[in-house]
Amino acid sequence: MGKRRLQWILAFGCVASLAAVGTARANDIMNDRGGRDYGDRDDRFRQCDPHSYGAVGDGKTDNATAIQTAIDRCARSGGGIVRISGGGTYITGPIELKSRVYLRIDAPTVLKNTTDHSRYQPAFIGYPFRFANDPTVTGTGPTLPGKPEAMISAVDVVESGIIGDGTIDGSGADPAAAATSDNPSALSWWQLAANAKTLTSYPGFPDIPTSNGLPRPWLVEFYNSKHIRIEGVLLTNSPMWDLGLRYDTDVIVEGLRVYNNANDTTGAPNTDGVDLVGSTDVRLTHLDIDTGDDDIAMKSGLPGIDPAVPGVPTFAYYKPPYNLPKLPLTHVHIANSTFKRGHGMSVGSETVNGVSHIHAHDITFLGTDNGFRIKTGRDRGNDISDMKIERLTMTDVTTPISISEYYPTIPSATQGDLSQPHIPATQPHVHDITISDLTATNPKTVRNVVTTGGLIIGLPESPVLKIALNRVSITSANASGIFMRLRNITGLTCNAVTLTPLNPAAPASGHIFDNEGGLSDLNGCDVPPASM
Asked: What is the value of pTM for the model shown?
Protein backbone atom coordinates (compact mmCIF):
# COMPACT_ATOMS: atom_id res chain seq x y z
CA MET A 1 0.00 0.00 0.00
CA GLY A 2 1.37 3.44 -0.94
CA LYS A 3 2.54 5.82 1.78
CA ARG A 4 0.05 8.56 0.81
CA ARG A 5 -2.82 6.06 0.82
CA LEU A 6 -1.84 4.89 4.31
CA GLN A 7 -1.67 8.48 5.57
CA TRP A 8 -5.14 9.16 4.17
CA ILE A 9 -6.59 6.09 5.87
CA LEU A 10 -4.99 7.02 9.20
CA ALA A 11 -6.33 10.57 8.96
CA PHE A 12 -9.80 9.37 7.97
CA GLY A 13 -9.75 6.87 10.82
CA CYS A 14 -9.03 9.67 13.28
CA VAL A 15 -11.88 11.76 11.91
CA ALA A 16 -14.34 8.88 11.77
CA SER A 17 -13.85 8.15 15.46
CA LEU A 18 -14.98 11.59 16.60
CA ALA A 19 -18.40 10.68 17.92
CA ALA A 20 -16.97 8.11 20.29
CA VAL A 21 -14.43 10.26 22.02
CA GLY A 22 -16.28 13.56 22.61
CA THR A 23 -14.25 16.54 23.67
CA ALA A 24 -11.12 14.43 23.90
CA ARG A 25 -11.18 14.50 20.10
CA ALA A 26 -11.32 18.27 20.14
CA ASN A 27 -8.33 18.26 22.47
CA ASP A 28 -6.44 16.13 19.95
CA ILE A 29 -6.87 18.86 17.36
CA MET A 30 -4.81 21.11 19.62
CA ASN A 31 -1.07 20.58 19.54
CA ASP A 32 0.80 18.77 22.28
CA ARG A 33 2.05 21.99 23.93
CA GLY A 34 -0.98 22.64 26.11
CA GLY A 35 -3.21 23.99 23.37
CA ARG A 36 -1.82 27.52 23.78
CA ASP A 37 -0.03 28.08 20.44
CA TYR A 38 -3.17 28.76 18.49
CA GLY A 39 -1.54 29.33 15.11
CA ASP A 40 0.38 26.02 14.97
CA ARG A 41 -2.05 23.14 14.80
CA ASP A 42 -1.62 19.43 14.43
CA ASP A 43 -2.25 18.51 10.78
CA ARG A 44 -3.10 14.85 11.29
CA PHE A 45 -6.75 15.48 10.48
CA ARG A 46 -8.43 15.95 7.13
CA GLN A 47 -7.77 19.41 5.73
CA CYS A 48 -10.67 20.87 3.74
CA ASP A 49 -9.51 23.83 1.66
CA PRO A 50 -12.09 26.47 0.69
CA HIS A 51 -9.61 27.82 -1.87
CA SER A 52 -10.36 24.69 -3.87
CA TYR A 53 -13.92 25.98 -4.27
CA GLY A 54 -13.00 29.53 -5.24
CA ALA A 55 -12.24 31.33 -1.96
CA VAL A 56 -10.15 34.47 -2.49
CA GLY A 57 -8.77 36.74 0.23
CA ASP A 58 -8.87 39.94 -1.80
CA GLY A 59 -11.18 41.92 0.50
CA LYS A 60 -13.84 42.11 -2.24
CA THR A 61 -15.00 38.64 -3.31
CA ASP A 62 -17.92 37.11 -1.39
CA ASN A 63 -16.61 33.75 -0.20
CA ALA A 64 -19.71 32.46 1.60
CA THR A 65 -20.49 29.82 -1.04
CA ALA A 66 -16.89 28.60 -1.26
CA ILE A 67 -16.49 28.31 2.51
CA GLN A 68 -19.89 26.66 2.98
CA THR A 69 -19.11 24.16 0.22
CA ALA A 70 -15.87 23.23 1.96
CA ILE A 71 -17.73 22.79 5.27
CA ASP A 72 -20.49 20.67 3.73
CA ARG A 73 -18.15 18.40 1.78
CA CYS A 74 -15.88 18.01 4.79
CA ALA A 75 -18.88 16.96 6.90
CA ARG A 76 -20.06 14.46 4.29
CA SER A 77 -16.58 12.92 4.24
CA GLY A 78 -16.57 12.31 8.00
CA GLY A 79 -15.28 15.63 9.28
CA GLY A 80 -12.03 17.53 9.52
CA ILE A 81 -10.65 21.06 9.50
CA VAL A 82 -11.72 23.80 7.09
CA ARG A 83 -8.64 25.98 7.03
CA ILE A 84 -8.44 29.60 5.91
CA SER A 85 -4.83 30.76 5.91
CA GLY A 86 -2.15 32.64 4.04
CA GLY A 87 -3.20 36.16 5.01
CA GLY A 88 -5.65 38.43 3.26
CA THR A 89 -9.24 39.43 4.02
CA TYR A 90 -11.99 36.98 3.11
CA ILE A 91 -15.41 38.60 2.82
CA THR A 92 -18.27 36.27 3.67
CA GLY A 93 -21.94 36.22 4.38
CA PRO A 94 -23.44 33.82 6.92
CA ILE A 95 -21.94 30.33 7.14
CA GLU A 96 -23.04 27.30 9.14
CA LEU A 97 -20.73 24.76 10.77
CA LYS A 98 -21.55 21.06 10.79
CA SER A 99 -20.80 18.14 13.11
CA ARG A 100 -17.18 17.05 13.30
CA VAL A 101 -16.02 20.06 11.30
CA TYR A 102 -13.71 22.70 12.79
CA LEU A 103 -13.15 26.10 11.21
CA ARG A 104 -9.49 27.13 11.47
CA ILE A 105 -8.38 30.69 10.73
CA ASP A 106 -4.65 31.38 10.81
CA ALA A 107 -3.14 34.81 11.44
CA PRO A 108 -2.86 37.21 9.76
CA THR A 109 -5.95 36.05 7.87
CA VAL A 110 -9.20 37.98 8.47
CA LEU A 111 -12.66 36.52 7.89
CA LYS A 112 -14.85 39.61 7.49
CA ASN A 113 -18.61 39.90 7.51
CA THR A 114 -20.56 41.36 4.62
CA THR A 115 -22.10 44.79 5.13
CA ASP A 116 -25.26 43.70 3.32
CA HIS A 117 -27.67 43.83 6.25
CA SER A 118 -30.44 42.21 4.21
CA ARG A 119 -28.72 38.83 4.46
CA TYR A 120 -29.47 38.58 8.18
CA GLN A 121 -32.37 38.69 10.54
CA PRO A 122 -32.12 39.99 14.10
CA ALA A 123 -31.10 37.58 16.84
CA PHE A 124 -32.84 37.60 20.22
CA ILE A 125 -32.45 35.49 23.33
CA GLY A 126 -36.20 34.77 23.25
CA TYR A 127 -36.20 33.41 19.71
CA PRO A 128 -35.23 29.87 18.65
CA PHE A 129 -32.28 29.40 16.33
CA ARG A 130 -32.92 29.87 12.61
CA PHE A 131 -30.54 29.63 9.68
CA ALA A 132 -32.13 28.41 6.44
CA ASN A 133 -34.19 30.89 4.43
CA ASP A 134 -37.79 29.66 4.32
CA PRO A 135 -39.78 31.72 1.79
CA THR A 136 -43.05 30.20 3.03
CA VAL A 137 -42.71 31.92 6.39
CA THR A 138 -43.78 35.54 6.70
CA GLY A 139 -44.64 37.92 9.48
CA THR A 140 -42.86 39.61 12.36
CA GLY A 141 -41.00 38.51 15.46
CA PRO A 142 -40.68 34.73 15.66
CA THR A 143 -42.47 34.29 12.33
CA LEU A 144 -39.97 36.27 10.29
CA PRO A 145 -38.50 34.47 7.27
CA GLY A 146 -35.70 32.23 8.46
CA LYS A 147 -32.64 34.21 7.46
CA PRO A 148 -29.43 33.59 9.41
CA GLU A 149 -29.09 35.26 12.80
CA ALA A 150 -25.28 35.00 13.10
CA MET A 151 -22.28 35.34 10.82
CA ILE A 152 -20.98 31.91 11.92
CA SER A 153 -23.49 29.53 13.45
CA ALA A 154 -23.96 25.89 14.36
CA VAL A 155 -27.17 24.15 15.40
CA ASP A 156 -27.55 20.60 16.72
CA VAL A 157 -23.90 19.78 16.01
CA VAL A 158 -21.46 17.57 17.89
CA GLU A 159 -17.70 17.92 18.03
CA SER A 160 -17.26 21.19 16.21
CA GLY A 161 -15.66 24.54 16.84
CA ILE A 162 -13.41 27.38 15.75
CA ILE A 163 -9.63 27.31 16.21
CA GLY A 164 -6.55 29.23 15.10
CA ASP A 165 -5.10 32.66 15.81
CA GLY A 166 -6.74 34.62 12.99
CA THR A 167 -9.49 37.25 13.12
CA ILE A 168 -13.26 37.16 12.67
CA ASP A 169 -14.51 40.70 11.96
CA GLY A 170 -18.27 41.28 12.19
CA SER A 171 -18.34 44.69 10.42
CA GLY A 172 -20.48 46.09 13.24
CA ALA A 173 -19.06 49.61 12.91
CA ASP A 174 -18.93 49.56 9.10
CA PRO A 175 -21.58 51.48 7.11
CA ALA A 176 -24.24 49.32 5.49
CA ALA A 177 -23.61 48.36 1.88
CA ALA A 178 -26.70 50.20 0.67
CA ALA A 179 -29.49 52.46 1.89
CA THR A 180 -32.86 50.84 2.51
CA SER A 181 -36.30 52.06 3.53
CA ASP A 182 -35.59 51.30 7.19
CA ASN A 183 -31.96 52.49 6.99
CA PRO A 184 -32.00 55.39 4.49
CA SER A 185 -28.59 56.68 5.59
CA ALA A 186 -26.89 53.25 5.32
CA LEU A 187 -25.83 53.44 8.96
CA SER A 188 -23.73 50.78 10.65
CA TRP A 189 -25.22 48.23 13.04
CA TRP A 190 -23.67 50.12 15.96
CA GLN A 191 -25.06 53.49 14.85
CA LEU A 192 -28.53 52.04 14.32
CA ALA A 193 -28.44 50.60 17.84
CA ALA A 194 -27.23 53.87 19.35
CA ASN A 195 -30.01 55.77 17.60
CA ALA A 196 -32.61 53.31 18.91
CA LYS A 197 -31.82 53.87 22.60
CA THR A 198 -34.66 56.38 22.93
CA LEU A 199 -37.30 54.05 21.47
CA THR A 200 -40.01 52.65 23.73
CA SER A 201 -40.72 49.75 21.35
CA TYR A 202 -39.21 48.25 18.22
CA PRO A 203 -41.30 48.33 15.01
CA GLY A 204 -41.89 44.76 13.88
CA PHE A 205 -40.67 43.33 17.20
CA PRO A 206 -43.38 43.97 19.80
CA ASP A 207 -42.20 40.95 21.81
CA ILE A 208 -38.65 42.23 22.34
CA PRO A 209 -38.12 44.53 25.36
CA THR A 210 -36.09 47.63 24.57
CA SER A 211 -33.75 46.77 27.45
CA ASN A 212 -32.40 44.03 25.16
CA GLY A 213 -31.04 46.59 22.70
CA LEU A 214 -31.97 46.97 19.05
CA PRO A 215 -32.19 43.46 17.53
CA ARG A 216 -29.17 42.70 15.32
CA PRO A 217 -27.33 39.55 14.22
CA TRP A 218 -24.73 37.98 16.48
CA LEU A 219 -21.17 37.22 15.39
CA VAL A 220 -20.80 33.53 16.40
CA GLU A 221 -23.50 31.25 17.82
CA PHE A 222 -23.60 27.60 18.83
CA TYR A 223 -27.12 26.34 19.57
CA ASN A 224 -28.14 23.01 21.14
CA SER A 225 -24.73 21.54 20.42
CA LYS A 226 -22.31 19.24 22.27
CA HIS A 227 -18.55 18.89 22.61
CA ILE A 228 -17.61 22.32 21.28
CA ARG A 229 -14.10 23.76 21.24
CA ILE A 230 -13.26 27.42 20.55
CA GLU A 231 -9.65 28.51 20.82
CA GLY A 232 -7.36 31.40 20.11
CA VAL A 233 -9.29 33.43 17.55
CA LEU A 234 -9.92 37.16 17.76
CA LEU A 235 -13.57 38.27 17.56
CA THR A 236 -13.92 41.94 16.75
CA ASN A 237 -16.30 44.60 15.43
CA SER A 238 -19.33 42.44 16.24
CA PRO A 239 -22.82 43.67 15.30
CA MET A 240 -24.10 42.55 18.73
CA TRP A 241 -23.07 39.57 20.93
CA ASP A 242 -19.66 38.17 19.99
CA LEU A 243 -20.01 34.53 21.08
CA GLY A 244 -23.41 33.11 22.00
CA LEU A 245 -23.58 29.63 23.53
CA ARG A 246 -27.26 28.68 23.79
CA TYR A 247 -28.40 25.34 25.19
CA ASP A 248 -25.00 23.71 24.65
CA THR A 249 -23.29 20.93 26.61
CA ASP A 250 -19.57 20.38 27.16
CA VAL A 251 -17.96 23.52 25.79
CA ILE A 252 -14.32 24.60 26.11
CA VAL A 253 -13.36 28.16 25.22
CA GLU A 254 -9.65 28.84 25.66
CA GLY A 255 -7.51 31.78 24.64
CA LEU A 256 -10.41 33.62 23.00
CA ARG A 257 -9.77 37.30 22.34
CA VAL A 258 -12.62 39.79 21.98
CA TYR A 259 -12.09 43.41 21.03
CA ASN A 260 -14.85 45.89 20.23
CA ASN A 261 -13.91 49.55 20.26
CA ALA A 262 -15.83 50.87 23.25
CA ASN A 263 -14.31 54.30 22.51
CA ASP A 264 -16.35 54.42 19.31
CA THR A 265 -18.88 57.26 19.43
CA THR A 266 -21.65 54.65 19.65
CA GLY A 267 -20.04 52.83 22.59
CA ALA A 268 -20.16 49.51 20.69
CA PRO A 269 -23.63 48.78 22.15
CA ASN A 270 -24.60 45.28 23.33
CA THR A 271 -21.34 43.73 22.14
CA ASP A 272 -21.16 41.18 24.97
CA GLY A 273 -17.97 39.13 24.86
CA VAL A 274 -19.37 35.69 25.72
CA ASP A 275 -23.04 34.96 26.47
CA LEU A 276 -23.97 31.65 28.07
CA VAL A 277 -27.68 30.79 27.87
CA GLY A 278 -29.17 27.61 29.33
CA SER A 279 -25.96 25.64 28.81
CA THR A 280 -24.15 23.15 31.04
CA ASP A 281 -20.54 22.12 31.57
CA VAL A 282 -18.82 25.17 30.12
CA ARG A 283 -15.16 25.99 30.72
CA LEU A 284 -13.79 29.44 29.85
CA THR A 285 -10.05 30.00 30.37
CA HIS A 286 -7.37 32.49 29.33
CA LEU A 287 -9.84 34.97 27.85
CA ASP A 288 -8.88 38.54 26.92
CA ILE A 289 -11.98 40.70 26.48
CA ASP A 290 -12.35 44.43 25.83
CA THR A 291 -15.85 45.38 24.72
CA GLY A 292 -18.89 47.63 25.00
CA ASP A 293 -21.15 45.52 27.25
CA ASP A 294 -20.83 42.50 29.55
CA ASP A 295 -17.43 40.85 29.23
CA ILE A 296 -19.08 37.59 30.31
CA ALA A 297 -22.86 37.21 30.71
CA MET A 298 -24.42 34.12 32.30
CA LYS A 299 -28.12 33.77 31.48
CA SER A 300 -30.97 31.29 31.20
CA GLY A 301 -33.65 33.24 29.34
CA LEU A 302 -36.61 35.58 29.59
CA PRO A 303 -40.21 34.49 30.18
CA GLY A 304 -41.84 36.44 27.37
CA ILE A 305 -44.11 39.41 27.84
CA ASP A 306 -47.51 40.63 26.76
CA PRO A 307 -46.93 43.97 24.97
CA ALA A 308 -50.37 45.07 26.16
CA VAL A 309 -49.36 44.53 29.82
CA PRO A 310 -45.70 45.57 30.15
CA GLY A 311 -43.75 43.83 32.89
CA VAL A 312 -46.11 40.87 33.26
CA PRO A 313 -44.45 37.59 32.15
CA THR A 314 -46.44 35.13 30.07
CA PHE A 315 -43.79 32.43 29.43
CA ALA A 316 -44.66 32.88 25.77
CA TYR A 317 -41.13 32.02 24.69
CA TYR A 318 -41.67 28.41 25.82
CA LYS A 319 -44.90 27.97 23.84
CA PRO A 320 -45.64 27.96 20.09
CA PRO A 321 -44.35 29.50 17.91
CA TYR A 322 -41.17 29.98 19.98
CA ASN A 323 -40.88 26.61 21.79
CA LEU A 324 -37.61 27.38 23.56
CA PRO A 325 -36.30 24.76 26.01
CA LYS A 326 -36.64 25.64 29.71
CA LEU A 327 -33.06 24.95 30.70
CA PRO A 328 -30.95 26.46 33.50
CA LEU A 329 -27.34 27.52 33.11
CA THR A 330 -25.25 25.23 35.30
CA HIS A 331 -21.67 24.14 35.96
CA VAL A 332 -19.63 26.99 34.52
CA HIS A 333 -15.90 27.42 35.20
CA ILE A 334 -14.18 30.73 34.38
CA ALA A 335 -10.46 31.11 35.09
CA ASN A 336 -7.20 32.91 34.34
CA SER A 337 -8.74 35.69 32.27
CA THR A 338 -8.51 39.45 31.81
CA PHE A 339 -11.54 41.69 31.34
CA LYS A 340 -10.85 45.25 30.26
CA ARG A 341 -13.47 47.79 29.26
CA GLY A 342 -16.98 46.45 29.48
CA HIS A 343 -19.56 45.74 32.15
CA GLY A 344 -17.60 43.02 33.90
CA MET A 345 -18.51 39.43 34.75
CA SER A 346 -22.29 39.26 35.04
CA VAL A 347 -25.01 36.83 35.99
CA GLY A 348 -28.28 37.90 34.36
CA SER A 349 -30.36 39.75 33.83
CA GLU A 350 -32.24 37.01 31.96
CA THR A 351 -32.40 34.31 34.66
CA VAL A 352 -35.94 32.92 34.43
CA ASN A 353 -34.74 29.29 34.25
CA GLY A 354 -32.07 29.60 36.92
CA VAL A 355 -28.27 29.93 37.11
CA SER A 356 -26.20 27.80 39.47
CA HIS A 357 -22.87 26.10 40.16
CA ILE A 358 -20.55 28.84 38.94
CA HIS A 359 -16.84 28.83 39.82
CA ALA A 360 -14.76 31.82 38.73
CA HIS A 361 -11.19 32.45 39.86
CA ASP A 362 -7.99 34.27 39.01
CA ILE A 363 -9.66 37.05 37.02
CA THR A 364 -8.16 40.50 36.36
CA PHE A 365 -10.49 43.45 35.75
CA LEU A 366 -9.04 46.59 34.15
CA GLY A 367 -11.42 49.52 33.73
CA THR A 368 -14.72 47.63 33.74
CA ASP A 369 -17.94 49.23 34.97
CA ASN A 370 -18.49 46.33 37.37
CA GLY A 371 -16.42 43.51 38.76
CA PHE A 372 -18.67 40.60 39.74
CA ARG A 373 -22.35 41.36 39.19
CA ILE A 374 -25.66 39.56 39.68
CA LYS A 375 -28.62 41.34 38.09
CA THR A 376 -32.12 39.90 38.16
CA GLY A 377 -35.63 41.11 38.81
CA ARG A 378 -39.21 40.30 39.72
CA ASP A 379 -40.16 39.63 36.09
CA ARG A 380 -37.19 37.40 35.16
CA GLY A 381 -35.89 35.51 38.20
CA ASN A 382 -35.50 31.95 39.47
CA ASP A 383 -32.93 30.08 41.59
CA ILE A 384 -29.54 31.82 41.38
CA SER A 385 -27.17 29.98 43.65
CA ASP A 386 -24.02 28.02 44.46
CA MET A 387 -21.37 30.41 43.22
CA LYS A 388 -17.75 30.47 44.30
CA ILE A 389 -15.95 33.61 43.15
CA GLU A 390 -12.32 33.97 44.21
CA ARG A 391 -8.98 35.60 43.54
CA LEU A 392 -10.20 38.68 41.69
CA THR A 393 -7.92 41.66 41.08
CA MET A 394 -9.57 44.92 40.03
CA THR A 395 -8.10 48.23 38.90
CA ASP A 396 -10.18 51.24 37.82
CA VAL A 397 -13.48 49.41 38.37
CA THR A 398 -16.54 51.51 39.22
CA THR A 399 -18.42 48.92 41.33
CA PRO A 400 -16.40 45.86 42.44
CA ILE A 401 -19.39 43.89 43.79
CA SER A 402 -22.97 44.39 42.61
CA ILE A 403 -25.75 41.98 43.57
CA SER A 404 -29.29 43.22 42.98
CA GLU A 405 -32.72 41.63 42.67
CA TYR A 406 -34.10 44.84 41.15
CA TYR A 407 -33.81 45.12 37.37
CA PRO A 408 -33.42 47.31 35.44
CA THR A 409 -33.55 50.08 38.06
CA ILE A 410 -31.90 49.76 41.48
CA PRO A 411 -33.58 51.93 44.12
CA SER A 412 -31.43 54.68 45.58
CA ALA A 413 -30.27 54.51 49.18
CA THR A 414 -33.16 56.72 50.28
CA GLN A 415 -35.88 55.00 48.23
CA GLY A 416 -38.13 52.29 49.53
CA ASP A 417 -39.41 49.34 47.53
CA LEU A 418 -40.05 50.13 43.88
CA SER A 419 -43.55 49.88 42.49
CA GLN A 420 -43.37 46.66 40.47
CA PRO A 421 -45.71 43.66 40.08
CA HIS A 422 -44.88 40.90 42.57
CA ILE A 423 -44.86 37.73 40.47
CA PRO A 424 -44.22 34.45 42.33
CA ALA A 425 -43.52 32.51 39.12
CA THR A 426 -40.54 34.71 38.25
CA GLN A 427 -39.40 35.74 41.73
CA PRO A 428 -35.60 35.66 42.06
CA HIS A 429 -33.95 33.59 44.81
CA VAL A 430 -30.28 34.57 45.16
CA HIS A 431 -28.44 32.46 47.74
CA ASP A 432 -25.20 30.70 48.66
CA ILE A 433 -22.72 33.08 47.07
CA THR A 434 -19.10 33.18 48.31
CA ILE A 435 -16.68 35.91 47.24
CA SER A 436 -13.10 35.48 48.46
CA ASP A 437 -9.74 37.17 47.99
CA LEU A 438 -10.96 40.20 46.07
CA THR A 439 -8.64 43.20 45.84
CA ALA A 440 -9.81 46.40 44.16
CA THR A 441 -7.82 49.62 43.72
CA ASN A 442 -9.87 52.33 42.06
CA PRO A 443 -9.62 56.04 41.23
CA LYS A 444 -12.21 58.61 42.24
CA THR A 445 -14.10 58.18 38.99
CA VAL A 446 -14.19 55.80 36.04
CA ARG A 447 -15.56 57.40 32.86
CA ASN A 448 -17.03 60.22 34.96
CA VAL A 449 -18.82 57.81 37.33
CA VAL A 450 -17.82 57.95 41.00
CA THR A 451 -16.39 54.65 42.24
CA THR A 452 -18.14 52.82 45.09
CA GLY A 453 -17.64 49.92 47.45
CA GLY A 454 -20.53 47.99 45.96
CA LEU A 455 -23.99 46.78 46.90
CA ILE A 456 -26.01 43.72 47.87
CA ILE A 457 -29.73 44.45 47.57
CA GLY A 458 -32.51 41.89 47.81
CA LEU A 459 -36.27 42.15 47.56
CA PRO A 460 -38.39 42.46 50.70
CA GLU A 461 -40.38 39.35 49.72
CA SER A 462 -37.24 37.44 48.67
CA PRO A 463 -34.12 38.50 50.59
CA VAL A 464 -30.67 37.52 49.38
CA LEU A 465 -29.61 34.51 51.47
CA LYS A 466 -26.28 33.24 52.75
CA ILE A 467 -23.61 35.50 51.32
CA ALA A 468 -19.97 35.22 52.44
CA LEU A 469 -17.31 37.88 51.90
CA ASN A 470 -13.81 36.65 52.73
CA ARG A 471 -10.67 38.76 52.52
CA VAL A 472 -12.19 41.55 50.46
CA SER A 473 -10.17 44.77 50.17
CA ILE A 474 -11.53 47.75 48.23
CA THR A 475 -9.58 51.01 48.03
CA SER A 476 -10.75 54.17 46.28
CA ALA A 477 -9.27 57.61 45.64
CA ASN A 478 -12.71 59.02 46.44
CA ALA A 479 -11.81 61.36 49.31
CA SER A 480 -15.40 61.50 50.55
CA GLY A 481 -15.21 57.81 51.40
CA ILE A 482 -16.79 54.59 50.20
CA PHE A 483 -19.10 51.96 51.67
CA MET A 484 -21.18 49.00 50.54
CA ARG A 485 -24.97 49.22 50.43
CA LEU A 486 -26.93 46.40 52.10
CA ARG A 487 -30.68 45.79 51.94
CA ASN A 488 -32.92 42.75 52.49
CA ILE A 489 -30.28 40.12 53.30
CA THR A 490 -30.59 37.07 55.53
CA GLY A 491 -27.24 35.57 56.42
CA LEU A 492 -24.19 37.71 55.64
CA THR A 493 -20.78 36.54 56.86
CA CYS A 494 -17.77 38.86 56.73
CA ASN A 495 -14.14 37.84 57.22
CA ALA A 496 -11.38 40.45 56.81
CA VAL A 497 -13.43 42.92 54.77
CA THR A 498 -11.86 46.38 54.41
CA LEU A 499 -12.98 49.48 52.51
CA THR A 500 -10.74 52.57 52.34
CA PRO A 501 -11.36 55.41 52.93
CA LEU A 502 -14.54 55.10 54.94
CA ASN A 503 -17.21 57.78 54.82
CA PRO A 504 -17.27 59.44 58.26
CA ALA A 505 -20.67 60.99 57.64
CA ALA A 506 -24.14 59.74 56.75
CA PRO A 507 -25.23 57.38 55.38
CA ALA A 508 -22.44 54.98 56.39
CA SER A 509 -21.21 57.01 59.39
CA GLY A 510 -17.73 55.52 59.37
CA HIS A 511 -18.86 51.94 58.86
CA ILE A 512 -17.94 49.58 56.03
CA PHE A 513 -21.58 48.88 55.24
CA ASP A 514 -24.67 51.04 54.99
CA ASN A 515 -27.76 49.41 56.50
CA GLU A 516 -30.84 50.19 54.41
CA GLY A 517 -33.02 47.75 56.32
CA GLY A 518 -34.17 44.16 56.10
CA LEU A 519 -30.93 42.66 57.45
CA SER A 520 -30.70 39.62 59.71
CA ASP A 521 -28.23 36.92 60.72
CA LEU A 522 -25.08 39.00 60.26
CA ASN A 523 -21.74 37.52 61.26
CA GLY A 524 -18.59 39.63 61.63
CA CYS A 525 -19.91 42.53 59.54
CA ASP A 526 -19.41 46.21 60.40
CA VAL A 527 -23.03 47.31 59.99
CA PRO A 528 -24.58 50.41 61.63
CA PRO A 529 -28.24 50.75 62.61
CA ALA A 530 -30.68 50.97 59.71
CA SER A 531 -30.59 54.30 57.85
CA MET A 532 -34.12 53.97 56.45
From this structure: 0.91
